[in-house]
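ugh ok fine here u go
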Amino acid sequence: MDMATVRDRGLVLLGCGKMGSAMLAGWLKGGLPAASVWVLDPHPSDWLTAQGVHLNTGLPEAPAIVLIAVKPQMMGEALPALTALGGGGTLLLSVAAGTTIATYEAVLGAGTPIVRAMPNTPAAIGKGITAICGNPQASEAHLALAEALLGAVGQVVRLSGEDQMDAVTAVSGSGPAYVFHLIETLAAAGASEGLPEALALRLAKATVAGAGALAEAAGEDPGQLRVNVTSPGGTTAAALAVLMDERRGFPALLKEAVHAAAERGRELGK
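structure:
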């Protein structure tokens, strides 16, 4: 199964909010014809209406893939519409947070190839990273197709098993919120040292964005990059003495935060 098959048999997108819209925009830009896409969304945006896709119409009999991008609380209402597509001919790809592969198998049948994915919000600007895993019925071709589709909004990594998904959610799925909070608190700290608020915020945004880009582009690991900018006895060292404190600094704080997110994910998945 490949993108040619998707063009021929069609792709169904269930839910087209921010994540679904970002992916759809990437596919259309990449050459997938609008005529090959069916979208079911109860509240379509003006942008979606203008794309020329099949919107809230009858579905093709045997689409190559169905991508579920609805909010978890809408899952119970949305899944029954897909029952007829279970059994093996159609790949189900889910980016819905917290919904397990077993949940889909219970509705669509264990013979259905299913790939579960966890993207994150930078997908909206093509800078996301998505982790995927499949059930036993998901072949290498299915996983490769999922990678190709999700690659429209950023990087894709494969997990060794679904048991890693809660940890992924806690690191990269929820992670952008941690970084946004870092930006706002860094800006507030700058303002408390006498900078105008707008300037402090601009400095904080550019610093975090630039450091992240450097961390990805550099051949050295983040620890070495940190060492490179830390002169002994200098200003950076003074700040890192606080941030790297084992009791109240980043090591303990982020470990606790990520664990809390992962535990909540496990609870929601039950």
